[in-house]
Write a structure and sequence with these properties.
Rossmann fold; Immunoglobulin-like; six-stranded mixed beta sheet; 786 residues; alpha/beta; TIM Barrel; 20% strand; 23 helices; 30 strands; 3 domains
């Protein structure tokens, strides 16, 4: 190498150096304005003609002037694919040209990080729409979720995206909250294991995973979006934080997004103890903390803890927020003014900037051979956009097969009187508002609902077979009568007469009820679509009642984003299937379960309430929250967390307690067997719950500490060896530290939180032991089948 050329290469371009050293070298060369430019994003939309991205027009803020902004650099591009419908290949070209412009405009040649939503698949036109996270939880299958996330990340990376705003680790505390569909469930261990798998998959594809919403967003008062949060330190420590802790330790995500809410008067975006003290100083997180959209501005607009934009910027920056999204506002001129006025030290900007630049170095964006052309269009002629159109498939057959497998494993059979599987019915009455609606399988953050609904002239970009279409394919010899009966949230009962007539003429009724996903009140489920009670929207419960009265067996199919009370169906329906927005292949999965082609194996990630007005309610409750004679209301579930039926039977037996007593620093060993005694192969989900009868602070009656899916052929038996570390019995004690206490415990080896098959008394001896974030988080489960 030419020595002169080697000397001319700036240190921040030297790929042999540690990213932190490269970042420091670049920081030393930057002006204050160049520094702050790296801490903001700009909301854009890719051009469907292949030109550069254009700033997105939105109600919160005037779009910035790119000609004025870009000479100083740019930190992030917000949702280039997820803002307007755009062909994937042409959008990739548009993004590449924009990155070329960004790099050429600033004197260091630094491109932007492009981020997208990926809550239930890459939120882009034509991309696979996978089941929503609540369905991921229903699978109890982290390995499958990891595979899905890797596929999502691969598609995103191929078109030039660097960061994904997922997964959501909020634990459901009140099912009235509209964003329940975005969560994984009501148990922190289930949420943590599934979310960690998603992070691992996304990061394996080179995409920066973003944990959200940190922390407590789902615990808002009355289940209202963006409402204050009231919780004690133990609820936060033992329910809300563990999924984040697990995902950070085992998934190694490179970004965290703060929550919108305030907890006990402290907004998350201004919570230094949370974002720096816990997240960084204790847990050791060294990635970036990004703002939830407009979250820094909300410190002034909604929380009232800042009196000006520069004060809001200073609060967020000091607390540990590194990047303002979705667009430049407080981290622009207000932050510059605050530094010049001496109210914000430049060292705080350097701290955030170092994290941003280290990440850009890790992504290859500071490398001398950086190429803006992504892999998906690298072999094409970028000068002819129309030649690219249609050349990138974001919904290939492999993706669709994966989406279908997830949907099949997520369908929960709640009730069955023997009617299912249906066999070969001659006449099927398919009734309900979700029977013939293609988007009934999609959640709020799927592209066709989130963005496509604003562009009705544009095709959905993916195949979305209706339940009617898939039933016709699944039962080709059957005559199918279809009638909506009612709208999802309308108040008209005019369609009841037609629906009852169809039911009486049929051998079986398939009744498709549930939700319509939408944003901010435009749906019955989704962000800003909170409800006052858990009763089915509109007149759907009345439609259910008249059909139950018609006399024909009713198979209820729920396509929803949250659990609802099911009224008389709980005891009178022939069968009930619960499917939480199962994605583009969801109706195929449901049809397969109805016919028996698919043996259902989903388990409830959230309890199905028996009464419409008992929220907030969760299985993870203390004794005082249980039913009692001193209250006239009941919190019991119609179908409990972890519940799910199948088409075969299992026998649990042969308990062998190897170690039932151990010290507070030890562990237990227990073995048992599960045998498939039915006539077909099937899946049993073995769940491990811990009951602590006496503790120094109030504990939930039980909590999930492990689980395992077992797939057994007819007659096959699996021996399960469980090694349970005492660390799993830890909780936050009276003095705010996590401890393991001596005393009696009870392990419940269960098929659900209310179906305990084997109960094992256990005993912890020795002193109280303090544990921390390095404690063991999982049991060891070993399975031998024969």
């Amino acid at each position: 190498m030419n020595p002169a050329a080697e000397l001319a290469t700036p240190a921040w371009r030297d790929v042999s150096l540690d990213p932190a050293i490269r970042a420091d070298a670049l920081i030393a060369a930057m002006t204050l304005r160049e520094k702050t430019a790296q801490l903001v994003g700009v909301w854009v939309g890719a051009s469907d003609e292949g030109g550069e991205v254009a700033p997105h027009q939105h109600e919160m803020e005037e779009p910035p002037d790119l000609d004025e902004l870009l000479p100083h650099g740019l930190g992030q591009l917000t949702r280039p694919f997820g803002t307007v419908p755009v062909d994937a290949a042409v959008g990739a070209l548009s993004l590449a040209r924009s990155q070329q412009r960004i790099a050429a405009a600033n004197r260091f040649g630094i491109p932007a990080i492009a981020h997208e939503e990926c809550l239930a698949g890459f939120a882009a036109w034509g991309a696979t729409a996978y089941p929503v996270p609540l369905s991921w939880g229903a699978t109890f299958n982290p390995e499958l979720v990891r595979t899905m996330a890797a596929a999502i990340g691969t598609d995103m990376r191929a078109v030039g995206v660097h960061q994904g705003l997922a997964p959501v680790l909020d634990v459901v505390r009140d099912a009235r909250w509209g964003r329940v569909e975005e969560t994984i469930g009501e148990d922190p261990y289930l949420v943590g294991t599934i979310a960690t798998a998603y992070v691992q998959g996304l990061e394996s594809a080179g995409i920066v995973a973003t944990l959200k919403h940190f922390a407590g967003y789902s615990a808002s008062r009355a289940g209202r979006n963006l409402a204050p949060v009231t919780m004690g330190t133990r609820e936060r420590a033992d329910v809300i934080l563990p999924p984040f802790e697990m995902a950070l330790r085992e998934g190694r995500p490179r970004s965290v997004m703060h929550a919108y809410t305030d907890t006990d008067g402290i907004p998350s975006a201004a919570d230094q103890e949370l974002l720096t003290g816990l997240l960084r100083d204790t847990w050791g997180f060294d990635g970036t903390v990004v703002a939830d959209y407009f979250g820094i501005a909300f410190l002034k607009l909604l929380h009232g803890v800042a009196g000006s934009w520069d004060e809001a910027a200073g609060l967020a920056l000091a607390s540990g927020v590194d990047v303002e999204l979705p667009t430049v506002k407080t981290f622009g001129q207000p932050l510059l003014d605050a530094v010049e006025a001496g109210t914000v030290p430049e060292e705080l900007i350097d701290r955030a900037l170092r994290r941003v630049l280290v990440q850009k170095a890790q992504l290859g964006l500071l490398d001398p051979d950086w190429n803006p052309i992504p892999q998906a269009i690298s072999g094409a002629n970028p000068t002819v956009p129309e030649a690219l159109r249609g050349s990138v498939d974001l919904d290939p057959p492999a993706n669709r097969r994966l989406a279908r497998e997830l949907a099949e494993q997520a369908v929960v059979l709640l009730r069955n009187d023997g009617t299912l599987p249906l066999g070969r019915p001659r006449r099927i009455a398919l009734i309900g508002p979700n029977a013939d609606t293609p988007t009934a399988v999609l959640g709020c953050y799927s592209f066709p609902v989130h963005v496509g609904s604003q562009h009705p002239e544009v095709p959905t970009g993916i195949a979305l077979p209706t339940l009617h279409e898939t039933l016709a394919a699944e039962f080709p010899d059957a005559e199918i009568f279809s009638a909506p009966g009612a709208a999802v949230d309308g108040d008209s009962t005019a369609g009841f007469t037609e629906a009852v007539a169809a039911a009486r003429a049929a051998d079986v009724v398939v009744l498709a009820l549930g939700d319509r996903a939408g944003l901010f009140g435009r749906g019955t489920s989704g962000e800003g679509c909170d409800v006052e009670s858990m009763q089915l929207p509109g007149v759907q419960e009345q439609l259910l009642d008249v059909l139950l009265d018609a006399g024909t067996p009713v198979v209820l199919v729920m396509l929803a984003g949250r659990p609802y009370t099911l009224g008389r169906a709980e005891t009178e329906a022939a069968a009930i299937l619960q499917s939480f927005f199962p994605g583009e292949a969801g109706t195929e999965a449901i049809a397969g379960v109805l016919s028996g082609r698919v043996n259902p194996s989903g388990r409830l990630p959230v309890s199905v309430p028996r009464h419409k007005g008992v929220q907030p309610s969760t299985y993870l409750a203390a004794r005082l929250a249980q039913d009692s004679d001193v209250s006239s209301t009941s919190t019991s579930a119609a179908y409990a967390f972890g519940h799910g039926l199948g088409y075969t039977e299992f026998e649990w037996s042969a308990l062998d307690v190897g170690v039932a007593e151990t010290g507070t620093d030890g562990g237990f060993r227990i073995a048992f067997e599960v045998r498939n005694t039915g006539e077909r192969s099937g899946c049993e989900v073995v769940q491990f719950y811990l009951h602590d009868p006496v503790a120094s602070v109030v504990q939930p009656v039980q909590r999930l500490v492990g689980y395992r899916r077992l797939l057994l052929e007819t007659g096959e038996v699996c021996r399960v060896l469980l090694e349970l570390p005492a660390d799993l019995a830890s909780f936050t004690g009276r003095e705010g530290r996590r401890i393991v206490e001596p005393g009696e415990l009870e392990l419940r080896i269960s098929a659900s939180s209310t179906d305990h098959r084997i109960t094992v008394p256990m005993h912890l001896t020795g002193p109280v032991r303090e544990v921390d974030h390095t404690r063991m988080l999982h049991p060891v489960v070993t399975v031998e089948c024969r």
